[in-house]
Write a structure and sequence with these properties.
The protein is of the alpha+beta class. It has 15 helices and twelve strands.
Length: about 425
C-alpha cells in the first residue's frame, strides 16, 4: 500500500505496549489512562487541560484546571473508568457526585452523534467532553455547544495529538521512575505509529478508490501485526455512514428523513428517547420488532470480514391478497454483494413462493434475486456468476435467512458501489432510485 513505512510496522511489532494492547484494543487505552491518573494525578489533570485547549479559551481552561487540582488536594475528586458507560470520567466526591469531564475513546470504531448525545444527557450541564479517536469522525458528530453556537460540544483529539499531549505533560514530569518513563515513551511511540497507519487507511478508502483497492501485501501486513480487524471495521463503518447520509439526502424532501436509522446509533440511545420519538423499539432482537418502512443500517465485523447490512421490514401481499410482513436485506461482506429475505414460514418453499409473496413483477420487483435486470447487468457485467451456482440450490441459507449474491467487479469504485447499494434500498422502499 502506498505510503506505508515498513519501519513503523517493525516498531509496532517490537513494542511491548502495542503487543499487550492487542488483547483488548480500546479497553487497554482506557486502562492505561486510568493508571496515569492514579500514578500522576496532577500531571494527568494538566494532560486533560492540554487536550481541551482547542475548544476552550486560555483563561477558562486555566480556571478549570485550578478547580480540579483544588478538589484533588481536598480529596474531593476521583477518576473513573467504565462508570455510567463512560469510557473515562472525572467526578466530584460528594453525596450527589457531579461529572465534570467525560472522555470517549475510539480506536476500532467511529463515534456516532446519537451515542455522544446520550453521554451528554447522562453527564448533565457543566461537563466537558473529549472524543479521543484514531480516525476523523464527521464534524457533526461533535455537536454544538448549548452555550456558544460557535463551539463544539466535544473536543476532538486524534491519537497522534494525544501522543504530543503526553510528551508535553506527563513525560516532562520529574516524578517519573526510569521504568515508568520507558513504559510511557513506548506507549507514545506506538500510538504515533498506529495513527500514521490510520491516516493511510482513511486515504485508501476515499470514494474515488476502487472497492477492492487494498493490495495483498498490505493485507498481509495488517494481519501480521493483528490490526486488520481495526482496518476492516473502520472502513465498513465509514461506508455505512455514507449510505445513511445519501439516504437522508434522497428522502429528506419526502418527509421521510426519520426512516433512516443507524442501528449502532439506535442501540446507544436511552429507551425513553426512543419512545418519545415513537420508534417503538430499544434493542430489537426479533424481526417483528422492526417497524415496517424503516431502513436499518449497521456495520460490523463478521467472520473476520467487514459487513454492511441494510434491512427493511416490508408489508407485502400474499397470493390471497392478505398482508404479510417480510424483512428484505441488501448486504455486502468482503466482495460479496447479497440480496436476501427473511422468508419466515416461506423458508421451506421454493423461489416462486418467495417472489410471489414479494409481489414480484419482472423489472418492477422490490428486490431482484436473479440479478438480471438492466441495471444489474450494467453493474456486474453481462456474464457475471450468480451464487449459489448449483442447479438444485436456489438460495444460500442461514436458518430463515435466504440470499443470493454476486462478486463486486474489480473496477468498481466505492462511489459506484454506494450508488448501486442505495439504489437497491430505494427500490425496496418503492421509490425511484435516481431521485435526487
Amino acid at each position: 500500500m502506498e505510503g506505508v513505512d515498513i519501519k513503523k510496522i517493525d516498531e509496532l511489532k517490537s513494542s511491548p505496549m502495542f503487543n499487550l494492547s492487542l488483547s483488548s484494543k480500546e479497553l487497554f487505552h482506557t486502562n492505561f489512562m486510568y493508571w496515569l491518573s492514579q500514578k500522576f494525578p496532577y500531571q494527568f489533570i494538566d494532560l486533560m487541560g492540554r487536550m481541551l485547549e482547542e475548544e476552550n479559551n486560555k483563561e477558562e481552561n486555566n480556571q478549570f484546571l485550578t478547580d480540579l487540582k483544588e478538589l484533588k488536594r481536598n480529596n474531593k475528586l476521583e477518576f473513573k473508568r467504565e462508570y455510567n458507560h463512560f469510557d473515562f470520567s472525572i467526578l466530584t466526591k460528594e453525596d450527589n457526585p457531579k461529572t465534570v469531564l467525560v472522555l470517549e475513546n475510539k480506536v476500532k470504531s467511529i463515534a456516532t452523534r446519537g451515542q455522544l448525545k446520550g453521554y451528554e444527557d447522562k453527564a448533565g450541564s457543566g461537563c466537558k467532553f473529549i472524543l479521543l479517536s484514531l480516525t476523523d469522525p464527521n464534524e457533526k458528530v461533535l455537536g454544538v455547544s448549548p452555550t456558544d453556537p460557535n463551539k463544539k460540544t466535544w473536543t476532538l483529539v486524534k491519537y497522534k495529538d494525544y501522543a504530543v499531549c503526553l510528551q508535553d505533560t506527563i513525560l516532562k514530569s520529574n516524578k517519573l521512575e526510569h521504568y515508568e518513563r520507558e513504559l510511557i515513551e513506548d506507549y507514545v511511540q506506538f500510538i504515533s505509529n498506529l495513527s500514521d497507519l490510520a491516516d493511510i487507511w482513511q486515504k485508501d478508502w476515499e470514494l474515488g478508490k476502487t472497492w477492492q483497492s487494498q493490495d495483498s501485501e498490505a493485507l498481509e501486513m495488517w494481519q501480521d501485526i493483528r490490526i486488520y480487524d481495526i482496518y476492516e471495521k473502520l472502513r465498513v463503518q465509514s461506508f455505512a455512514d455514507e449510505v445513511i447520509k445519501e439516504l437522508k439526502r434522497k428522502l429528506k424532501d419526502k418527509g421521510e428523513d426519520g426512516k433512516i436509522l443507524d442501528v449502532s446509533l439506535l442501540l446507544s440511545r436511552p429507551k425513553k428517547a426512543i419512545e418519545e420519538d415513537k420508534k417503538h423499539m430499544y434493542k430489537p432482537q426479533k424481526l417483528d420488532q422492526f417497524v415496517p418502512g424503516y431502513v436499518y443500517v449497521k456495520s460490523e465485523l463478521s467472520h473476520g470480514q467487514g459487513l454492511v447490512d441494510a434491512c427493511i421490514r416490508c408489508k407485502l401481499m400474499d397470493e390471497n391478497n392478505n398482508p404479510i410482513y417480510r424483512t428484505l436485506y441488501v448486504q455486502i461482506q468482503g466482495n460479496n454483494y447479497r440480496r436476501a429475505i427473511d422468508a419466515g414460514d416461506l423458508a421451506k418453499k421454493g423461489v416462486g413462493d418467495i417472489t410471489k409473496a414479494m409481489g414480484y413483477v419482472k423489472d418492477k420487483e422490490r428486490l431482484n434475486f436473479d440479478f438480471d435486470c438492466d441495471r444489474d447487468k450494467r453493474f456486474f457485467g453481462e456474464n457475471s456468476t450468480l451464487y449459489p451456482k448449483e442447479k438444485n440450490k436456489k438460495f444460500n441459507n442461514f436458518n430463515d435467512f435466504k440470499y443470493r449474491y454476486k462478486m463486486i467487479p474489480a473496477d468498481k469504485t466505492i462511489e459506484d458501489v454506494l450508488k448501486f447499494y442505495v439504489g437497491d434500498i430505494m427500490r425496496i422502499l418503492g421509490l425511484p432510485e435516481n431521485k435526487s
